[in-house]
Amino acid sequence: AGQQESDWKNCPQCKKISYLPDLITNSYICDCSFHFDIPVKLRLDNLFDSTYEIIEPGNIDPDPLNFQVKGGAHGEYKYIDKIKKYRKVTGQRTALMCASGNISNLSAVVVCFNPKFGGGRFGPAENEHFLIAADHAIQSKVDMWVVIYQSSGIDVHGGITALAGMPKSIIAMNEIKKAGIPTFAIAARAVAGGTFGSSFFMHDFIIIESKYVENLLF
Questions:
Q1: 114-126: per-residue pLDDT in tens?
Q2: Of 26, 38, 147, 190, which is most buried, counting CB atoms within 10 Å of its CB?
Q3: What is the 3-state secondary structure (H, E, C) of 7-35?
Q4: Cβ proximity of 87 and 60 under 8 Å
């Protein structure tokens, strides 16, 4: 049953049920033009001319507050256990997959939020990963900086350490602009909360990937 469920996708827009291989052939776009989430690695494979290098986050503590929920609606849990689950599902250490390479023969750094990693939340580890990628772009003097937003916002489990990602990402964007690097924001799906309210509107170019990406909100 699990295999059957994974082979079919129900479109939330037109309600049509599509065969997954057909969707993949059509770049994850339904006949009604609704865009399903494209796996982040496939997105990078399609963006870059050929090979690209992954910008690793390093050993960043994703849970500096040792956050625990006790007696919540979804029961008791340690946040670090959720992080471990997200890492296992995605194969990533943070919700960001960052890479450098050439796009149409222009050097670029691309930051892609992965919604399968806790809704693409922007937490303490993502904050630092964003800065590492930005520093790489500046030091390498790349031709463009691209951020593909698929984010549910600031990770509430990180408290003030996560909220610090708002000014941190703004500072990073300012430094990229000072370096004279053109910046592109691509809204691939929902962009919400502090992610939307910080770096998103600082880009030189903002691209809404589909007319059905309508849930852009603070």
A1: 999 999 999 999 9
A2: 147
A3: CEEECCCCCCEEEHHHHHHCCCECCCCCE
A4: no
pLDDT band, residue 77 (cuts 50/70/90): confident
For 44, list phi and psi in degrees, rounded to 5: -65, -40
* Distance separating alpha carbons of residues 137 and 196, to the nearest angstrom: 21
As beta bridge partners, residue 106 has: 103
When computed from its CA atoms, the radius of gyration of the chain, rounded to whole angstroms, is 18
pLDDT per position as a tens digit, 157-207: 888 999 999 999 999 999 999 999 999 999 887 788 888 889 998 999 999
